[in-house]
């Protein structure tokens, strides 16, 4: 037999992913849908999960066509909580906070209807989302501060920026 490197553990015996974010302040909660007599019920957010202690000030959804991407964006003060409830997406993060112990780190998570999880993204962490697969993806965001129409807390970079060492495209 050929020699190689053995795989490390990636799931628990209960099939929960062992996937600790390498970016300071990012939290991930894998969620198990509950089978009902007429489908599935999936909790999206519960305060007692202790992902953060911030309020939910606004919930919005984004429909993404297959292959669509958001580009890189970050917030100065707003915490994002992303949940993909239809299709699947790859959420890519880059820690742009100079004072963070994980400054400069890139991290990815694939989530969706088949593997639900909620990902919390603190202010200052750049993030981009790409829809995967052949069907549209539906992404929910449960932010701690509602969108300010007159002064958006939203900063953008293109998907292929030289400022982040990963291309979304």
UniProtKB/TrEMBL annotation:
<dbReference type="InterPro" id="IPR014710">
    <property type="entry name" value="RmlC-like_jellyroll"/>
</dbReference>
<dbReference type="InterPro" id="IPR000888">
    <property type="entry name" value="RmlC-like"/>
</dbReference>
<comment type="function">
    <text>Catalyzes the epimerization of the C3' and C5'positions of dTDP-6-deoxy-D-xylo-4-hexulose, forming dTDP-6-deoxy-L-lyxo-4-hexulose.</text>
</comment>
<dbReference type="GO" id="GO:0008830">
    <property type="term" value="F:dTDP-4-dehydrorhamnose 3,5-epimerase activity"/>
</dbReference>
<dbReference type="InterPro" id="IPR011051">
    <property type="entry name" value="RmlC_Cupin_sf"/>
</dbReference>
<dbReference type="GO" id="GO:0005829">
    <property type="term" value="C:cytosol"/>
</dbReference>
<protein>
    <recommendedName>
        <fullName>dTDP-4-dehydrorhamnose 3,5-epimerase</fullName>
        <ecNumber>5.1.3.13</ecNumber>
    </recommendedName>
</protein>
<dbReference type="Pfam" id="PF00908">
    <property type="entry name" value="dTDP_sugar_isom"/>
</dbReference>
<dbReference type="GO" id="GO:0000271">
    <property type="term" value="P:polysaccharide biosynthetic process"/>
</dbReference>
<feature type="site" description="Participates in a stacking interaction with the thymidine ring of dTDP-4-oxo-6-deoxyglucose">
    <location>
        <position position="147"/>
    </location>
</feature>
